[in-house]
Every structure is written in C-alpha cells, then in structure tokens.
Amino acid sequence: MTHSDQPTELDLAVGAMITVRPDEDQEAYNEQRESISIVQDQLREEGIDVDLLALPGTQIWEGGLENMGALYQLSRLAVHLEREDDLAQVIEDGPVIYDELDPVLTDVWDELTQTRFAHLVNLQGIDSYYLPADFAKPLWMPFENEEGEEDSAFFGSAYALQREIAELGPLLLDAGVKHNSEAYRCLELLREAATQSVNNGLPVIVW
C-alpha cells in the first residue's frame, strides 16, 4: 500500500467495492451488497463477468494523483501521438487544464473519434472503476447521485489499461516526454493500479 503526504486531487484504491465486512456493520454490508449486486448484474448483461462481491472490507493498495492536469496532459499526449502529431506544444503546455479543452481529446470523449488508448483517455475523474476483467471497450452506466441527479459511472478494463500503458510508455519517452514529468508519473501510477488489480483480482476504485 502506498501513502503520500501531499494533498491529492484524485484518489485511487485497489480493493473490494463492499467496504465493510458483515461482522463490522451488518446493515451497511447488506446495503452495499445489494447495490453492488445490481451493478454486477448490469455488467454481466453487457458481457462483463466479474465478481464484485468478493473479499468485503479488503483494500490492498492506494495511491493518489496530486494534479488532475497530469491526467489531462497524459490523455492529450496519447491521442496526439496516435495521430502522429508533433507533441511539442502539448509538452510545453504542461499539466494544466485550460478553459478551452483540446478538441482532439474531447472528440474521443464525445465518441466522435476512436482511439486505441480508450481505457486510458476516457478516465476523466471520480465515479470511475477499472475491473479485473478483459473487455474491449470501456462503458458508462447511469446512476442517481446523492442529490438525486442523473450521473454516470465509468468502467474500464484493468487488463486493457495495462496493455495500453505498456504500448504508450515507450512511445512517450521516444517523443521527448521526461520520466520525471507529471504526465509520465501519472502513467506510472495508473500502471501500478492496473497491475495490482490484475494480480489481486480486485477493482481499481477512483474517487
């Protein structure tokens, strides 16, 4: 398990989606199990067979992203690299989210264009999960948030994320992205999360 003294803008954990054991709080366990069973059934209807009820109360790894701009820049680098664009401007911009978002990236988010890095670049923030299951395309599932408003949760594949990062990492270094840059450190954080998920059969939870 990893810890950081720095404040984080995005937190990740690998562990059970049921956060309490029945011997700790039976009522909370029952409530969580019921809601997560529904999610598991919905995923199976989409062809994703994964056990989300296992090992309640277990967490085996945690990490955090200090700057959301690093994830945004990493995603920009991935989609521009795929188009064989010059990355100099994206590198120069740094890990900053400007008011005017990069249309090359938002076209992927809006499903106007496709990318071979779909499980990476579609991660945009909280209510996101990488599952220890192998499936081709990430998906979004609707839910009602605490304010009663309609929202959606992102589900990616930890296996697919591993493959995308394994391909992307060397390409970024060849293109001049530094090992110690925030974007590359973000890639390494996601790599570790995916590895822990695959090795332990537990999802990555992003909040």
Question: Keywords, please?
Answer:
207 residues; alpha+beta
Word description of this protein:
- The protein has 207 residues and is an alpha+beta fold.
- It has 2 domains: 17-57, no CATH class; 62-202, no CATH class.
- The protein has 7 helices and 6 strands.
- A 6-stranded mixed sheet has the order 2-1-6-3-5-4.
- The protein starts with 9 loop residues before the first strand and ends with a strand.
Share in β-strands: 15-25%
Given the C-alpha coordinates, what overall shape results? Answer: globular
What is the typical, i.e. mean, pLDDT?
94
**How much helical structure, as a percent, in the residues?**
40-55%
Query: Which consecutive residue ranges, at least 5 long each, have pLDDT under 50?
Result: none
Distance between the termini: 17 Å
- Multimeric state of these chains? single chain
Order of strands across the widest beta sheet?
A: 2-1-6-3-5-4
| Number of domains as seen in the coordinates | 2
Task: Summarize the SSE layout with pairings.
Blueprint: E1 10-15, H1 26-45, E2 59-65, H2 68-82, H3 88-93, H4 103-109, H5 118-121, E3 128-131, E4 139-144, E5 150-157, H6 158-174, H7 182-200, E6 204-206
Parallel strand pairs: 3-5
Antiparallel strand pairs: 1-2, 1-6, 3-6, 4-5
Helix pairs in contact: 2-7, 6-7
In brief:
The protein is α+β, with helices and mostly antiparallel strands. The protein has helices at 26-45, 68-82, 88-93, 103-109, 118-121, 158-174, 182-200; strands at 10-15, 59-65, 128-131, 139-144, 150-157, 204-206.
